[in-house]
Predict the 3D structure of the following.
Amino acid sequence: MPDYSAPTKDMAYVLHDVLKVQDLPTPGYDDLDRDFTSAVLDEAAKITGEVLAPLNVVGDTQGCTLENGVVRTPDGFKDAFDQVKEGGWTGLDMPEEYGGQNLPYVMGLALTEMLSSANQAFAMYQGLTHGAAAAILAHGTDAQKSTYLPDMINCNWTGTMNLTEPHCGTDLGLMRTRAEPQGDGSYKLSGQKIFISSGEHDMADNIIHLVLAKIPGGPDGIKGVSLFIVPKFLVGDDGSLGARNGVACGSIEEKMGIHANSTCVMNYDDATGWLLGTEHKGMQAMFTMMNEARIGVGIQGLAQAEVAYQNALTYARERLQGRAVTGDENPDGPADPLIVHPDIRRSLMDQKSFVEGARAFVLWGATLIDQAHRGKDAEALGMISLLTPVIKGFLTDQGYDMTVLAQQIYGGHGYIEEHGMSQFTRDARIAMIYEGANGVQALDLVGRKLAQDGGKHVMAFFEMVKSFIKDNADIDGMEPLLTPLKQASKDLQNAGMFFMAEGMKNPNAALSGSYDFMHMMGHVCLGLMWARMGRASLDALANGTTDPDFHQTKLATARYYMARRLPATTMHLARIQSGADPVMDLAADQF
Amino acid sequence: MPDYSAPTKDMAYVLHDVLKVQDLPTPGYDDLDRDFTSAVLDEAAKITGEVLAPLNVVGDTQGCTLENGVVRTPDGFKDAFDQVKEGGWTGLDMPEEYGGQNLPYVMGLALTEMLSSANQAFAMYQGLTHGAAAAILAHGTDAQKSTYLPDMINCNWTGTMNLTEPHCGTDLGLMRTRAEPQGDGSYKLSGQKIFISSGEHDMADNIIHLVLAKIPGGPDGIKGVSLFIVPKFLVGDDGSLGARNGVACGSIEEKMGIHANSTCVMNYDDATGWLLGTEHKGMQAMFTMMNEARIGVGIQGLAQAEVAYQNALTYARERLQGRAVTGDENPDGPADPLIVHPDIRRSLMDQKSFVEGARAFVLWGATLIDQAHRGKDAEALGMISLLTPVIKGFLTDQGYDMTVLAQQIYGGHGYIEEHGMSQFTRDARIAMIYEGANGVQALDLVGRKLAQDGGKHVMAFFEMVKSFIKDNADIDGMEPLLTPLKQASKDLQNAGMFFMAEGMKNPNAALSGSYDFMHMMGHVCLGLMWARMGRASLDALANGTTDPDFHQTKLATARYYMARRLPATTMHLARIQSGADPVMDLAADQF
């Protein structure tokens, strides 16, 4: 069975040595001293490593079952959920007013990584509740907040997002679920929603569904979509649970992975619901939830890569097979460990440089969110809005690839289920799809975010990279990091210029390269983070750190990323610059 | 449920328009006229599309079961196996002397693609038998051939390869299975083998295990390994089945995919076996089987990509979602089909250009094998020996990636098992591992094949690419294909030169880049095949073909490959040229 040990040391390094959170002006960040964050991270490491990780394979093997409308989660899940609730983990970054602990989002996101690594299917029950609560917090009335939030924030009640219908996923304007106003402020919802994660299960007293539906007579398409709160059990004014609502799970899906999360077909049959936010502005409210969810999903890519890497590394150190080409390294044993072989190292270094770079990237992103929300900083908001599709698309694509690399190190032992490596790839696969398939993320990035506010945010991004390079040009040891970063950033700018020049004439010229652009930008972001980590570790070494080995390792890993991963940008640029013709030449019936 | 329709038209195009098999000097190729090959391909298409493909999901869902030592295959498998046997498909390219049809290997390989696309887990029962029979054909005594081959070639008996043990896979020198000589020409084998595909099942009267074991007192390590024939039931001189031998299936593995193929732990307990080939030269004999098997596994990558692509294409044409950015293309419908979107096209074109290029590549490889074996051509043998690790490693890596792309087009519907898209990725995953994990293929290519016979074969390869470019430089329409091919080939040569210059000083400098080199070379091979297809289609158009649309489509796809896929070589070259340091810098305990 695989193991998981939360990378708390690396998280502390990113928070304090690299991002220097305590020096940031964000309200609440002055409390984030090393002792405090370590205490939180260490406790989170305990529950994720000791309670949730051991249930990961159990969850995969047993899956969820549906009988007479009741979904049963795997053995041990309910107990574990109770422990997570009791620890106060579910409301870590939620307002104290509703029972949360009011920590910054950056701490919540560090927890999210651990939860996902330990047990992604389990983490989703809490994760979706968190997203639904955030939407109610942002768009609900005071009455709605006080009715729903306390029990959602402590996860006595869980939440869901209901968007997809059988005939529409990305194109939600086609949806058919109707919400008829009842004249008393309530609506009656009817329709079918599919792929509803945690739609029905046995770990909560109530389930609060957030449901997109159309109010008859409203505008056509996506502009006529509204968002509703539809509880499984109606809630009285005193918070007591009343009658069962007209919503039920029709079936659960057989899936490639995340077997322990129930993916439900939800049937709404005159279910009572209440408008959340404004009529016909449902997509806006849903996006509050979705933006946060997209970052949470991006983390899942990193999280599965991290746990897969941890186990692959252990295996590479222990499995004896073959001899080092430069001479035996384990002369007393029958063979050398796998880790002596250059191609195994290549794979491990790809994984290591990805997970550590990705962690710095998302935690940086989280500080932008805190600065945007707590600091009311419009520039931070613009930047994270630009980066969100990159975090989601790049980290889940690459994270998946890394789980495949980790699995490969086990050879045939990675293909059988016994060692749990297959589960990491199967679970990681969904992250490329849900919360907007990665092609949609690329479209969002290139078709919307690049031009947002007159291109201000992407220009700020380039400026930031440029300034960093300039400010660090004279630091000894930075050159091997800055030169490749400069080249990659130039490639990315050239791609952006190509889009501007050609996309005006033919939008397909930009959209044909959107996926490549998303990956290029992801590489530049990780390159920037590695350059920042390189600088932080050079400083630590210069200041006589007590842990020079840790920082030397960081510098070597930074050099690896620059030398072996960043050159991908030249390939992406060449693809982009080939324009629309190769992609669009064929008529649909010529394929 | 997914569909499969064999790409017979494309196969005929490659055989006759591109490779022009009938013009080749290989013995037996003069019989391969279009009518004949079409008749064979069409019949093969029927049985694979109508009989095997419908059982693919059944096989995945039911899997194999082991009860009291008996492995039961999924419903319908035995009937289907009987139909395949009755059709004479199992011995298509085997000698007539033993009941085969004596067709060239290239025809057998076209069949292999279809079998794998239709039902990979099923195809393995026949595929491994074919490989085992080929080893007996090459290394067996006359008596062994007449005892085993007829019943293996008609698949009344099936075959297996027994290499791996719990503690050793790649490093077979560590193996512990012993073979004690009995003084009467027989041996008693004892030990445990794992991951034995088709090791036990209910579709054959007998199972002929080829088993690697050590004869006590022989040389240490891999040089003391011999190969044995160990039948499940002992075979009398008259071919009758006698006593059950001391070999049994201890358990079957739970795996990520190929559920319908039984992956067995085989326990040998004083099992009677006979030496195949020479004492202590077992690896040589096994390699006969393995080289063929590696090409067969390379095909599996292509085959899963092909069937996944076919279904993704249908879905992209039928699923209505969103509108084309350049204006509605289905104005009377609620939305446009997915295929209008540039990013969906990018994905489809990646898949299309891969599967068609890969098909040309492996069929070309098959003609080299025929020329080597039937034509006793040492140069062809050298070339296919060079290309074998590329076919295995590149086609299975890329094939897997393509199944992931195909699955992605389905969005959430690709993640649930209902549409069968998840199975294609889960089944394709094993091909990157078995018959030598792809890292081992890269090592074989760079560590052995490049330098084989003084580097003669790789030089012949470069010369072939160069000549093709030179010979076609003046043909109208070839320039957009030749310029990128020339660049990519130059990148590959530069990588080879880097290995020569640096690898002498430090072997890790070459081995750190082996994986990148394998992929680079794969791209150059597919680029060459696309250039050859481009030329063939330009000729067809110049000669007034009755199917201009087919050839225009080929040309557009060729341009796509050159513009969007070949630039990967620049990235691989940059990685390779960064040398050993980034990969090897860290000590094992620094990770």
